Amino acid sequence: MRFARLRPRLVAAFALVAALTSAAVAVGAWFVTREAVLRRAEDDARREARAVLAGAAASLPPSPSPAQVGDALARLKGGFDLVAVAGDGTFETTSISLSAASVPAGLAEPVEAGRVALVRTGRFVVAGGRPEGLPAIYLFLPLDQVLDDLDVLRNVLAAAGAGAVVLSAGVGAIAARGLLRPLREARTAAHRLEVGLLGTRLAEGGGDEFADLGHAFNRMAAALEASLAAHRRFVADVSHELRTPLTALTTAADVLDAHRAGLDDAGTRAAALLVRESRRLATLVEDLMEVSRLDAGAAPMVWEPVDLAALVAAAAEARGWSVVVDGPGGTTLADPRRLDTIVANLVGNAVEHGRPPVTVTVAATDREVTVEVADEGEGIAPQHLPHVFDRFYKADPARPGGRGSGLGLAIARENARLHGGDVTAASPPGGGARFTLRLPRRVAEPLPSGDPTVTTAPQDVVP
Amino acid sequence: MAAILLVEDDPSVREAVAMALEGDGHRVTTAATGDEAVERWRQRRPDLVLLDVMLPGRDGFDVCRAIRAHDQVPIIMLTARSDPIDVVVGLESGADDYVTKPFETRVLLARIKAVLRRQERSPGEPVLRFGDLAIDPAGMTVTQGGVDLRLTPTELRLLLELARRPGQVFTRALLLERVWDYSYLGDSRLVDVCIQRLRAKVEADPSHPTLIQTVRGVGYKLVPLP
To answer: By C-alpha distance, which of B223, B159, B165 is closest to B191?
Structure first.
């Protein structure tokens, strides 16, 4: 699966973009908010501090006693605590957790200098000032609530970010599916072309890049189809053109053969050679024509009820071959000529390349009929087995070609496939070659009308 | 043996086939074009015509129809094309059989022999009558209401085969064997097209045959009129 990697990559990219975006937004928002909230706390603290200092200055006498300071602090305390630090280091506080030591180090100096100063520590905003003749008063505004709120905000932002990532990944997955669908179709179409379905085309709808791809693909497929058609037509034309001179040749050879009594020894041998080779050439041309027809799809089927064992016996007898017909036999609807071609090529192959006896086993089940052609020869080497149905395949290139055209097994297989069946080759150890023809078993369907030119067609005609 | 008109435009094929035919004892007249073929047929009235399909000018089908319009002489088509349409057109033009190039000489000679044999009379065999249809095996004629239907020997032989056993169903394979002498894998279209031609001559309505009926998926039978 080529797209098994592309799809997660798309999904990851979507998720990553979402994660980065939401992280940037969240971090930015958090810092901005935090800064704003803290600044407001500082403003509050400064305002409160001024109020407290003014209050203290108004209510306390110069050089007040610690008790007076304590009372004033208690009175002025609001949503904050207060610490008053006298010049001698003694202090009054409104909270037992605060003391003179709690005052941040940098704050004392400007306060002693008479300014209202402010500093932010971890948990407080601390503001301080020293009214004339009074101790320095420090205001501790707690930030707990603000920090808690900021924590909540941070959590909300993090959750929203995580949600955005998941959502984006989902959108990415859907988008990937939509985007990859044309690619998947292109792959399927390419595969169909690969196996020879040259009429395959892609949809060219829409104006996107995939439509462009579809258009380019279709142009390629059309060119391929046209080129192959031209090629096949050439083969068909060549084969056809060969027929006329070949007819003259074979007939003349036959005439010469008929007059061999009047020839000397060399002449007789030459005549025999001429007859045999012109006949072989005729077979080759005939097979090329058959292959051309099969390639062109111009191979109409003529369905008739066929007794397979009888057909095998007749096919062998008609060609003067000696075979043993074995098995329970079987009948089916088939094209008898094509079946004859298949049987002749399989048995012919066994007769030529194997050793006698050639045994043909015919059997049938409800669903299929099988014809197994077995010989007692050397068998087929494993490396050649997958190629025996290739056109012009020669197991041993050094060995001169046999009497066959080199197309017989390819033709046999094509004809079997026209029936919706197949031919397979096997070579069990210690035995000869085994070729097995399997055809789906069909039963006769009555003719729809009295038209005699309509041949009997089975229900499930192979497309 | 027989006087054969060989119509073939390729000089080499013509010469070779003529030699082969003469070697088998036939007398051969040749023609290279369609017009020449019709001319020779008129002059010589041969026993059999071997007719190439692809001829310059007037093609083999046309020549076949021209001869058939006047004569029931057996005609064997020689075709370089095994295109199924060609074969059917050839048979529908009135040919009795066909041979595909390149053919084996013995196959061609066997076909010629088989076609000629269909003309043999069966002396002594009684006339078969079906309504106003009379089949005379001894005279090799078929008449309907006393009018000669001018069947070709192949059509007549096919009708006779069916008529000798009325009601019996003949498979195409059986008819191919008995009429055309094909013991194995004859072309069933020979039978189908010949039945068509036969019906056109003997049936009142060839598209709704009553005498020669199709038995679905099996073959044909002759049904005697009640």
So the answer is: B159
- Side-chain-side CA neighbours of A176 within 13 Å: the count stands at 19
Judge if A310 and A267 occupy the same domain.
no
At A147-186, the pLDDT tens digits run: 888 889 889 988 988 998 899 889 888 888 887 888 888 8
**Contact criterion met (CB < 8 Å) for A451 and B214:** yes
Which residue from A282, A300, A446 is facing B216, i.e. has the nearest CB?
A446
Domains and CATH numbers, chain B: 3-117 (3.40.50.2300), 152-222 (1.10.10.10)
- Contact residues on chain B for A243, CB-CB shorter than 8 A: 80, 101-102
- Smallest Cβ distance to B13: which of A244, A254, A446? A244
Encoded tokens for A167: 């959502």
Q: Do A12 and A130 reside in the same domain of the chain?
A: yes
Contact between A439 and A397 (Cβ < 8 Å): no
Following DSSP, what letter does each residue of B125-194 receive, concatenated? Answer: PPPEEETTEEEETTTTEEEETTEE----HHHHHHHHHHHHSTT--EEHHHHHHHHH---S---HHHHHHH
What residues of B are in the A interface, CB distance below 8 Å? 10, 12-13, 15-17, 19-20, 23, 80-82, 84, 88, 101-106, 172, 184-185, 188-189, 191-193, 195-196, 208-209, 213-214, 216-217, 220
pLDDT single digits (tens) A300-347 = 787 888 889 999 998 888 888 888 898 898 889 898 889 999 999 999
Q: Give the minimum alpha-carbon distance from B191 to chain A in angstroms, rounded to a whole number.
A: 9
Q: What are the pLDDT digits (tens) for B107-148?
A: 999 999 999 999 888 888 889 998 889 999 888 899 998 899
Q: Do A252 and B193 touch (CB under 8 A)?
A: no
Sequence-distant (≥ 6) Cβ neighbours of residue A191 within 8 angstroms: none
Place of tokens 């955005």: A164
The domain that holds A398 is classified in CATH as: 3.30.565.10
Q: Range of A46's domain?
A: 3-147
Say if A454 falls within a structural domain: no
Of residues A69 and A395, the one with the higher pLDDT is: A69
Give the integer Cα–Cα distance in Å for A143 and A140: 9
Residue A171 lies in a domain: no
Q: Inspect the interface and report whether the beta carbons of A252 and B102 lie closer than 8 Å.
A: no
Which residue among A258, A336, A444 places its CB closest to the CB of B185?
A336
Burial class for A219, CB neighbours closer than 10 Å (0-12, 13-18, 19+):
exposed
A38 and A85: one domain? yes
Question: What is the pTM for the complete model shown?
Answer: 0.65
Closest CB from A247, A444, A447 relative to B101: A247
Contact list in B for residue A250 (CB cut-off 8 A) is 102-105
Pick from A237, A241, A243 the residue to mutate for testing the B interface (most B CBs within 10 Å): A243
Confidence of residue B20 (pLDDT cuts 50, 70, 90): very high
Count H helices, E strands: chain B? Answer: 8, 12
Does A198 reside within a domain? no
A170 lies in some domain: no
Which of A131, A147, A163 lies at the terminal end of a domain, its last residue? A147
Residue A283 shares a structural domain with residue A323: no
Read off the CATH number of the domain in which A216 is found. 1.10.287.130
Please report which confidence band the pLDDT of residue A293 belongs to, taking 50, 70 and 90 as the band edges: confident
Residues A125 and A53 in one domain: yes
For strands B128-130 and B133-136, give the pairing.
antiparallel
pLDDT range class, residue A455, cuts 50, 70, 90? very low
How distant is the Cα of B124 from the closest Cα of chain A, in angstroms? 33
Identify which of B82, B104, B185 has the shortest CB distance to residue A289. B82
pLDDT in tens, A115-158: 888 888 888 889 888 888 888 889 898 888 888 888 898 899 88
